[in-house]
TrEMBL record:
Single GO BP term: proteolysis involved in protein catabolic process
The LysM domain, residue ranges: 425-471
Record InterPro entries: LysM, Mito/Outer_Membr_Metalloprot, Peptidase_M48
Organism: Microvirga lotononidis
Keyword Protease annotated: yes
Official protein name in the record: Putative Zn-dependent protease
Gene Ontology CC: membrane
Highest taxon above the source species: Bacteria
Annotated stretches, region: Disordered: 216-238
Keywords from the UniProt entry: Hydrolase, Metal-binding, Metalloprotease, Protease, Zinc
Cofactor: Zn(2+)
GO molecular function: metal ion binding; metalloendopeptidase activity
Length: 474
């Protein structure tokens, strides 16, 4: 979570807040849409889009050896496509989420979270090949054209026919068509990507291997959204089709995996949240630079994004948002809540108080489907907002809101200095090493589950002496 400068209003209507609370990226296979006529060249004219994306994902990841490997892999893949003269450039994003995507102008992006999940060069090559396929197949332009046609149909239904019901049906059908179209594009990019992977001499089975790891990662995370699930095929289906495509290449056992080279380049890569943007540990969040910490209620899962900390209960019926803003000098906390919340604040619910010695203002807002408890807390010159939401008028909203609000505190400099960044370390298994004792060396929550996920292992797998494995260290 970075400091967000106030822009007059956060525009957080109830529906927008709900979207933000479940927002998250998981997986790969998204080409970010630019105008359909965007030129297919890299250059200064596209730097603005690039810089916006990089900022949204925590900046560029600094890993020179890994960056060079990805560049070499990308160049090798491009030469194996049907468009070897097109220019591509890959950027590592400093984000722990597992994601990759492409711009239509040939810029490719992979997060360090995705790089940590991969176990060899062919798996990362499969991701890049998939993204290159989105670009060479012109998927963004095709989707823009379909979106334009859908918008036109909706406007005709609403404005010409003056039929709200028909307009709503058209909108629903348009969304369904776009989701179905996106799923078809993902599968097409998978198939094309596997072919290019094999032509470039990489192990084509790297694609189904990484898709399997992706499925396991998504299953262990609450960050995937209903919208993404609607627009992406089921992972099991993608794995099965990728396996079929790999078998059709006839390269089983002959393609390059590049495990040792990849793990060598991966050694030392930052893992998890960047302490400069706050760290999530279980239900606790602490931000050393902004000097704030809080703890979510039992059963909540937190996700730290570049804009806010998002939280959700296991049944998704309770949500949490925590963010920060530089507010105008002298603006009261009451005005902060009124100016940054665009739904109605219930009359008489605005209350002034303190929490752990910090000034705080709280309020209540009732939406159509969700009920919100709002608060603004000030530490120094920074104002923080904690917003809790429950679907309907659930009786436990007040209790979980007060519990979370009471945990908000200022972080002192000596505590902030003790927050150390995590990184990946590649270790060689010795005699007597087990899944359990290697996982026990990792200072993270759910260490065993994360060790298995990072190394593509199952609980009943055994450690092989002399084999290299990823662990997380301080």
């Amino acid at each position: 979570m970075s400091t967000i400068r106030q822009r007059g209003s956060f525009s957080l209507l109830g529906s927008v807040l709900l979207a933000a609370l479940v927002a998250g990226c998981s997986g790969f296979g998204n080409d970010v849409s630019l105008p359909a006529n965007a030129p297919r060249v890299l250059g200064p004219d596209r730097d603005r889009d690039h810089l916006r994306l990089v900022r949204a994902f925590g900046g560029e990841g600094r890993a020179p050896q890994l960056q060079q490997m990805l560049t070499d892999v990308t160049n090798r893949l491009v030469m194996a496509t049907d468009r070897p003269d097109e220019a591509f450039q890959v950027t590592i994003l400093n984000s722990p989420v597992v994601n990759a995507f492409a711009l239509p102008n040939g810029r490719l992006y992979v997060t360090r979270g995705l790089l940590a999940l991969a176990n060899d060069t062919s798996e990362v090559a499969a991701v890049l090949s998939h993204e290159i396929a989105h670009v060479t197949l012109r998927h963004a332009s095709q989707r823009s054209e379909l979106q334009a046609r859908s918008d036109l149909i909706e406007r005709v239904a609403e404005n010409v026919l003056n039929d709200a019901e028909e307009a709503a049906m058209a909108q629903s059908q348009a969304r369904s068509a776009l989701a179905s179209f996106s799923r078809a594009q993902e599968l097409e990019a998978d198939q094309t990507g596997v072919k290019v992977l094999a032509r470039a001499g990489f192990d084509p089975y790297g694609a189904p291997r990484f898709l399997t790891a992706l499925g396991r990662s998504s299953a262990s995370s609450d960050s995937s959204t209903a919208e993404r699930n609607a627009s992406h095929p089921r992972t099991d289906d993608r794995v099965a089709r990728a396996l079929q495509a790999a078998r059709r290449t006839g390269m089983e056992g002959t393609g390059e995996t590049g495990r040792l080279a990849y793990l060598t380049a991966l050694d030392g890569l930052s893992y998890g949240d960047d302490p400069a943007d706050g760290v999530v540990k279980g239900r606790r969040f602490i931000h050393s630079r902004l000097g704030v910490a809080f703890e979510a209620p039992e059963g909540f899962t937190l996700e730290n994004t570049s804009q806010a900390v998002l939280g959700s209960s296991g049944d998704s019926e309770r949500r949490l948002l925590f963010d920060a803003a530089d507010t105008p000098l002298g603006q009261s906390l009451e005005d902060v809540l009124r100016s940054t919340w665009t739904d109605t604040i219930e009359p008489g619910t605005l209350t002034i108080g303190t929490v752990n010695g910090l000034p705080v203002v709280t309020a209540l807002s009732n939406g159509k489907e969700w009920t919100f408890r709002l608060s603004a807390i000030r530490i120094g010159n920074t104002t923080f907002r904690l917003i809790m939401a429950t679907r309907g008028n659930r009786g436990d909203l007040e209790a979980i809101f007060q519990q979370t609000l009471n945990s908000v505190r200022q972080v002192q400099p000596d505590e902030a200095r003790r927050i150390r960044p995590l990184k990946l370390q590649i270790v060689t298994a010795q005699r007597g090493d087990t899944v359990q004792n290697l996982a026990a060396r990792m200072p993270v929550d759910r260490a065993l589950d994360k060790f298995l996920l990072l190394n593509g292992l199952n609980r009943n797998d055994t450690i092989k002496i002399g084999e290299r494995y990823k662990i997380v260290v301080e």
